[in-house]
Amino acid sequence: MANLEAIEKEMRSLGWWYQHFELPSGLRTGNGQEPGYDAKTRWNFIAPHVPQDLAGKTVLDLGGNAGFFSIQMKLRGAGRCVLVDPFVEFNRQARFAAGQFGVELDIINEDAHTYCLTTDERFDYVVFLGLLYHLKYPGLVLDRLAEMTKHRIYIQSNIIGSEADTYENKANYERSLDDPLLEDPAYPKLMFVENLYNGDATNWWLPNYAALAALVRSAGLKVLDRPHPQVIVAEPEFYFGRVVYPKLVFPQYGKKGGAIYPGVQQYEPELWQELIHRSEDKK
Ligand SMILES: C[S@@+](CC[C@H](N)C(=O)[O-])C[C@H]1O[C@@H](n2cnc3c(N)ncnc32)[C@H](O)[C@@H]1O
Asked: Measured from the CB, is residue 134 less than 6 Å from ligand 1?
């Protein structure tokens, strides 16, 4: 009991949890209230597409937050598992959660773009959930991930519009004649967010249903399944290869008054407190 209290105290000291999940002690991260989400609901769409036995396989969990998905892969026997997230608060949570499950994660505090552009490593399985729309250069990262994936990649993105709108690609689009197709709600589109989306300055591009799959295919990946409108399971189909530039220069980017990336990110203490209070109020 005393041990459980100590675990709960430590979990609470780690602040606001986005990923809510159960620890081996039976405790749940966060407080079970919004904001935040039950990470298992997302895992349920992906789990049937993950081999039961991942013995010795390598995993990349980009934007891995508090480590829920990395931990699931480790529990299926994965070997090296790299979790990349630029927020120090989430890195701490992931370290704590992995410790609770007795698994080891390689936690890297890094921005997705710079990580993908500076590593040579390829992974058997890549987990890319809830991150695409947070990236200023989502196509660049997806292209790299396609190249970095040996077997399978799990992708989730928030989307805009309706998934009921089906769209058939044309082999060629005639200038002027076909331009009105842009007005077709089903046509692949990315909505650019110059300011805030959902009150969040870290959102940049929201794809619609067709655009998410189109981006995935154009990266050289084959869509194997779409167990949810937001979720795609894919594997490498066409290998474009890569070029390594020893002196790559990457621009910093951000929004006025918001964080500047790449770089180590830390929540403003007031915002972090506000997130905690907001969820406490709903208890
Ligand atoms: C919506 S959460 C998704 C977390 C987790 N992948 C999931 O599906 O539960 C987005 C995560 O991406 C991280 N993130 C935001 N911008 C990032 C960036 N530029 N590079 C890498 N991770 C980023 C956030 O810190 C956060 O942990």
From this structure: yes
